Amino acid sequence: MTWLVAGLAAWALGWWINTTLARRPRTRITRTVVPVVFGLTVIVIWECVVRGLAIPSVLLPAPTMIAVRFIHATAILWEDFVQTAIKGALSGYVMGCGAAVLVAIAVDRSPFLQRGLLPVGNFVAALPIVGIAPILVMWFGFDWQSKAAVVVVMVFFPMLVNTVQGLQETDAMQRDLMRTYAAGYWQALFKLRLPAAMPFIFNGLKIATTLALIGAIVAEFFGSPIRGMGFRISTSVGQLATDLVWAEIVVAALAGSGFYGAVALIERAVTFWHPSQRGRG
Q1: Which of 38, 59, 181, 241 is the most buried (most CB within 10 A)?
Q2: Quick check: 176 pLDDT over 70?
């Protein structure tokens, strides 16, 4: 009962702090403090509920138990992070997004490809990952190359669709102005159309950050060497080591958030002129 009362007290305190901050003018500090307070409140309530209701650790370990396992398994978690996030997700992300931009330029120049490839892309993008991952694992082996192949398939078509849409963002008057300057296709592409497409391109890049990590982790469920986030999660579930499973989930969440945040920071620097970036401190 004491733990449950402490949980209610934590909820009330977090609610009061966030509502107080919400009444103040929005600054960079308040935008940072509010989600941090909310997250800490959720963690404290989680700890209190688990201990107050005596929930078995197999079903839901307490955050302190996860933290202890995280500290003791740092070497394993780092090895899994490198295998999945760096070798599998990041390499597939770079190859898939880079190829999508190049193909988008080809599609932009060819109406035939635009009418033929984009519908196929929508079809492939709708395929479930659990269907294509085992096939790619058989084709490319059990190491990180097969995970990178899964990531390429997952990120390619969302990135392609966003880039093609961005290249069509300029209006006729802007394109006519470039022609009056005797600009060729490539000059207009690099000086007008690609800069105008950057908000769409970065939108695709941000979508692909989450797809890349998810794809790499899920692909490891179907075959992997004795390391990787997906491999560790599947084996730890079989061993009922749910604290290690949650530690891997924390690593995945931190990696995904950091990846997304890095792309968002680059977007802010590149597209500072866009209305969506104005007024952000």
Answers
A1: 241
A2: no
